[in-house]
Amino acid sequence: VPIDFLAYQRAAEAMATGQSPYATAGESREIFRSFHRLELEMQAAQALGEGRDFLREFAARPQQPGPYVYPPTLALLINQFNLDGMAFTAVILASVLGFVLIWFRATGAHAGWLLLVIGSRDLFATLQGGNVELVLLFATLAAARLLWDHRLIWATPLIAFVVLIKPFYALFFVAFLVLRAMQLRGSERESP
Q1: Average pLDDT of the segment spanning 22-32
Q2: pLDDT higher for 119 or 43?
Q3: Rounded CA separation 6/170 (Å)
Q4: pTM above threshold 0.70
Q5: Cβ contact 181:147 at 8 Å
């Protein structure tokens, strides 16, 4: 299960019972202190020549996500749709595939370039961590493509989804629309 999913799942469970999705200051501090204690235990085991055994034992423990929950909207969506770790990972993989397909279609790139995406460290780290940024990037790219093709009705739900989770992404859409308007204005001047 992606570690980021566990943080959002914990927040979703808290929201389901009417509690805040955020850990208290004391809970957050204890999580970070446990990470520090773990680091000290690892260093001590390594110094005693027991590093491999410690890592095996550590890998068998349940994962401990950090207190980071941003955006809380994602925890709400996980709660409302009852997403589990597999569904969360599937959404991320589908977003990567959609992003790549739109990129290839827009650029006309040869399929061999897909190897850069498949073999990228960023993709591997994202899949291991369960980072939701790829979902947002895919939705942003898909909305931009729909806007470019004058399909505002189809782009609107994607824009709303992206801005609901990360409000500052609205700046991308504003800039995109300004550039689109400038491009249309320039093409009107060129036509007789």
Answers
A1: 90
A2: 43
A3: 28
A4: no
A5: no
